[in-house]
Amino acid sequence: MRIYISTNLYKPEQLHLIFGLIDKIGDPLLGIELFPEWHSQVFCNEVTRGMERFRCYPNSLHGPYVHTEHSKPEGTEEYARTMDYFRRTLALSRQLKSRYIVYHHNNCRVDPRHRDEMIKNSSRNLVKLRCEAEYFGAKLAVENAGVMSRGNMLFDEAQFISMAERISDDILLDVGHAHANGWDLHHVMGKLAHKITAYHVHNNDGYEDQHNRIRQGTLDIAKFFCWYQQYTPQADIVVEYGQQCAEDLDGIAEDVAYVKQILSK
Questions:
Q1: Which of 2, 37, 173, 196 would disulfide-bridge 43, Cβ 3.0–4.6 Å?
Q2: Cα torsion 142, 148, 152, 156: sign
Q3: What digits encode the pLDDT tens for the residues 81-131?
Q4: Is 147 left (phi over 0), alpha (psi -120 to 50) or beta?
């Protein structure tokens, strides 16, 4: 088990601030989950400048998100851009020797009339990228993406479990998304314990995908960690906060200390 901090905290021009945060926390085993933003030349420049420092830390990679949509069919502009961005991520994974790359089946809103087609497209793209990932020595981890309040939840709880059990890839369970969607987190963790390689951990009001600090919301984070220890004690923990938390270095350091303390019991 390892703890990672997601760079979802930062705007592209702030990416270098992750190193100051890691230094503030003072844990040499702490890792970084890099959130690619290939649409931004500023991000690309920041990654190039910081490459040697990024290589000094254990890392994982989120799949590209902005202007990225795996549920679009081959032959569309969205598909071409999405595959280009993900292939850049695969190359970065090889450079950094990343533990895994997070895959979202979709990011856009879900029209129920086209849901089956979206799943068919994104499942095909997952198979294709899985094969390409093998060439790069990379692994994919499929996340429960989307929340009902945004209209972009492609799989409900039962459907996600069913999909996860059918695929060969590992699962990254986002507990904030599960909470916002009203899922029975305990049930999901128990059913997918053998598949879960990592968690995105953050909190919210049970409705919006707020990416708050882990004790700022209605999710009982202490219960989550009890279930974590019961079912998946080897899974990684990725602290994935929103940009509203970027300047709260003391608070993030406090949260990491809390996670380490609660898991050491």
A1: 37
A2: positive
A3: 999 999 999 999 999 999 999 999 999 999 999 999 999 999 999 999 999
A4: beta
pLDDT at 156: 98
Q: Give the tens place of pLDDT for each residue, 12-23.
A: 999 999 999 999
In eight-state DSSP terms, residue 56 is T
Angle at 33 between CA 262 and CA 214, to 5 degrees: 35
In Å, how far are 102, 135, 180 from 129, measured between CA atoms?
12, 10, 29
How many alpha carbons lie under 13 Å from residue 113 in its C-beta half-sphere? 0
Q: Supply φ then ψ for residue 32, to 5 degrees.
A: -125, 130
For the record, the structure tokens of 132 come out as 């390409």
Burial of 115 (0-12, 13-18, 19+ CB in 10 A): middle
How far apart (Å, rounded) are the C-alpha atoms in residues 260 and 265? 9
Tokens linked to 178:
């599960």
Beta carbons within 10 angstroms of residue 109's beta carbon:
11
Query: Hey, what are 249's tokens?
Result: 């270095």
- In the numeric block, which tokens belong to residue 122? 């994104």
The answer to whether the beta carbons of residues 262 and 228 sit under 8 Å apart is no
